[in-house]
Prior knowledge:
Elements: E1 27-33, H1 40-47, E2 53-58, H2 65-70, E3 75-79, H3 85-95, E4 100-105, E5 108-110, H4 112-123, E6 130-141, E7 144-146, E8 154-161, E9 165-170, E10 173-178, E11 181-192, H5 197-217
Parallel strand pairs: 1-2, 1-4, 2-3, 6-11
Antiparallel strand pairs: 4-8, 5-11, 6-7, 6-8, 9-10
Keywords: Transferase
Protein name: Glycosyltransferase, group 2 family protein
InterPro entries: Glyco_trans_2-like, Nucleotide-diphossugar_trans
Amino acid sequence: xxxxxxxxxxxxxxxxxxxxxxxxxxxxxxxxxxxxxxxxxxxxxxxxxxxxxxxxxxxxxxxxxxxxxxxxxxxxxxxxxxxxxxxxxxxxxxxxxxxxxxxxxxxxxxxxxxxxxxxxxxxxxxxxxxxxxxxxxxxxxxxxxxxxxxxxxxxxxxxxxxxxxxxxxxxxxxxxxxxxxxxxxxxxxxxxxxxxxxxxxxxxxxxxxxxxxxxxxxxxxxxx
Length: 224
């Protein structure tokens, strides 16, 4: 639990796994996981300076995801059977207690530039008409950052006001839809995607099966 720090002390000390007390807007970070022991530690660490709480909703991992997540006193850890990417992310949002939410995947990190932009945003006077912020995503693919071919910048809503946004789409391809006014914020979410070709092929096979199953349940054509 974070300790209260007098408002006059702008420079704050942060212990490992303990969030800094913020004075302006409160921000929840929502992360869904399944067997993410290789990613979750760095994902959480990248959020500690900007988050007032971190919610991890796990799909009953069989690796060390739970142990690593719980090693951070700032994390509220939950687990439930996997319902689908969209459903899990919306359930994670529902578990958040603050008005503003940042939704992340475990293989994503907050860049220094985005961290600073979020800290500045939290201190600004609230715009009652603003319900979401689009963030650019920079993908790290097989050892290289991809900044071309439509991969960058990929602006998507990732920061939003609770009650005015929802994950939609078709599993596993999801996106956030917001009601009302949106804007953009400077800085990147860094996405560490595929480690190698085998990892990419396995993910494509997994995702194509999810799409086929989703369309079958809806009575849609799922042939490729």
